[in-house]
Amino acid sequence: MVSGFTCISSNPMTRTIAVALVLVQFSSAVAVAQAPGAQARALSFVSALAQAMSQRDHAAVAEMVRYPLSASVGGIGIPVTGRAELLRLYDSLFTAELRCLVDDAVAKGSSAIRVDSGGVSFASGRIHAGDVGGVLKITRLEVPPVTGAGAPPNPPPRRVNLRRGDTQFAGRLYGDGIDTYVASLRKGAVVQARIEQFPGRSAAVRVIEQKTGKSLERPGATAPRFWTGTIQDAGEYRVEVVRLAPYCQPSFTYLLTITVK
């Protein structure tokens, strides 16, 4: 009588066949995981998901899911039967905490993305994607606990009066934050905008003509902390301080100085 155990035949031929089958299955899984291009394909998928989440492109994310989707929040299964249901539940499933895990997987690359015969797992194992008709699709999703990683919404544009000389403003940038200052400027005014007192290349400053939406950035400028130019047409202009640091890194403060001559 056997209780709680699997009996293995003592027949040498049976044991040999069983071991061979296990080795074939193991070798097949390893071959899939190590196949040329498998890791690159997985990284491409994870990167595309990270980009879609960062742009809040709900439609693009929905296209990367196989339905019905097996999803859980706090250990409770959430039925996601189709695209419309996912779009309705999007903010509850693709949370800021999950985005941080996906971004981290992209940053770490292959070491944070597990490829096997069943597909690919990433985001600390909370997302699994399988091959569906030759394309990777998310088949399982487990929402991580809330940690407060989510950034507050961008504040509304702030209308300011600029006098000759220097005018200073202080702010704090979170997530994908953009702080916007709107001012009326006269034709021929020489304007300078400078941001400082924050780490590295974490933010940039840009000036945009309100009427046309045209950016007055210097061609080729990367993460500029300083902008200067002569106003060609009188009207309203936006001075924007744009956060460039990764979404999940801590918030930071900045000092903006606008000089009008």
Describe this structure in words.
With 261 residues, this protein is α+β, with helices and mostly antiparallel strands. It folds into 2 domains: 116 residues, Nuclear Transport Factor 2, Chain: A, CATH 3.10.450; 103 residues, Jelly Rolls. 27% of the residues lie in helices and 35% in strands. It has 5 helices and 14 strands. α2 packs antiparallel against α5. The longest helix has 23 residues. It is elongated and about 65 Å long. The termini are far apart.
Outline:
This protein has 261 residues and is of the alpha+beta class. It folds into two domains: 28-143, Nuclear Transport Factor 2, Chain: A, CATH 3.10.450; 158-260, Jelly Rolls. The chain contains five helices and 14 strands.
Show the helix and strand layout:
Blueprint: H1 12-34, H2 38-54, H3 58-63, E1 65-73, E2 76-80, H4 83-93, H5 96-108, E3 114-116, E4 119-122, E5 127-132, E6 135-143, E7 158-159, E8 165-173, E9 178-185, E10 190-196, E11 203-209, E12 226-230, E13 235-243, E14 252-260
Parallel strand pairs: 1-6, 7-9
Antiparallel strand pairs: 1-2, 3-4, 4-5, 5-6, 8-14, 9-13, 10-12, 10-14, 11-13
Give me some keywords for this one.
Jelly Rolls; 2 domains; Nuclear Transport Factor 2, Chain: A; 261 residues; six-stranded mixed β-sheet; alpha+beta; four-stranded mixed β-sheet; 14 strands; disordered N terminus; 5 helices
